[in-house]
Amino acid sequence: MKKIGVAVGVLVGVLALNGTAPGGAAKPRVAVLEFTETGAGGWSGNVGRAAETWFVDSLVNTQKFKVLERQQLQALLAEQHFQMGGEVSPATAVQVGKVAGVQVIVFGNVNFAQKEQELHTSGVMGLIKNVPHIWGSGSMRTSEGNLTARAVSVQTGEILFSKGETVSTSNFNLDILGTGGGTEWDETVARKVFQPAVEKLTAEMVAKIEGMKESLGEAATGGEGKVVALKDGIVLINLGRLDGVKGGDKFEVVRAEVIRDPDTNEVLGRDETPVGSIVVHKISGDHLSAAKILSGDDFSKGDVVKRP
Q1: Which site among 13, 222, 283, 307 is 20 to 30 Å from 292 CA-CA?
Q2: pLDDT tens digits, residue range 67-118?
Q3: Cβ–Cβ under 8 Å, residues 35 and 55
């Protein structure tokens, strides 16, 4: 069983069914994984999931991406026996991206902490007319968070974007005669803390990805995939029924080398060496097909498969 250290949440939204922008250009396919948590305290299990959801909403609202539904990704991961939980790394994100047939995977971490300063309110309450005998206490709670977001190219494994934003907010909690106060999960406070960071990081990430569209390559669902295995003369590829593949479809197979600028390490494109051609004879899953070899004999796992 393959174990992938991610708790997955995916961009969810209603976009154009053909995945193209208003101007006709293809939208990059993007998936977002649930953000991990650090120091969440009483908010553990909530703050990372909520921050990821707000990030997803903000990214979807740009209308610059074609998105994958949560249920679809979960089904694909289950079919491939991926196990979720733990830390996310660029390598594991790329593996999930290949299963999902997307070009960019977004993931990150939420570091959260709350500090409270006790304030005695009896003196203040004693000054209020008609309530001289009400005793209580309160606290000034400061909520601090750091939201770090990364975007990784599924094709190259390159980190396209990585940045963190630190924000904080304070609010007063009144505890009278033992009621009120506490550090339980409060979505309103969490949104107030993280929403500015979400919006700022989204804008910067979108600008970065938009400027690198040409180097993202095609996602599997865009007509390009990869050889995932060779078995008894049959080539298995990561394209299937959800990618519009049908029996009899022919594909070219090439060995692709990513070319980078020696000074900036920027991806300039790729050099392709023809390997052969194949024809699909069996659809084995949503993103899996078996193909017979038409020409060539030097196929390898990882070779790029594309329509002629």
Answers
A1: 222
A2: 776 666 666 666 566 665 667 788 888 888 877 778 888 888 888 776 666 6
A3: yes
Same domain for 125 and 260, yes or no, is no
Q: Same domain for 38 and 133?
A: yes
Max mean pLDDT among 35-39, 167-171, 252-256 falls in 252-256
The answer to whether residues 48 and 107 belong to one domain is yes
Predicted local confidence at residue 38, as pLDDT: 81
Q: Which comes out higher in pLDDT, residue 179 or 91?
A: 91
Q: Residue 119's closest CA among 185, 64, 170, 169?
A: 170
What is the span of the domain harbouring residue 51?
2-215
Return the pLDDT at 292. 96
Beta strands of 65-135 (E only): which ranges?
Answer: 66-67, 82-83, 104-120
> Of 172, 190, 215, at which residue does a domain stop?
215
- Closest to 281 (Cα-Cα) out of 243, 237, 221: 237
Q: What are phi and psi of 126, to 5 degrees?
A: -65, -20
- Gap between the Cα atoms of 306 and 137, Å rounded: 68
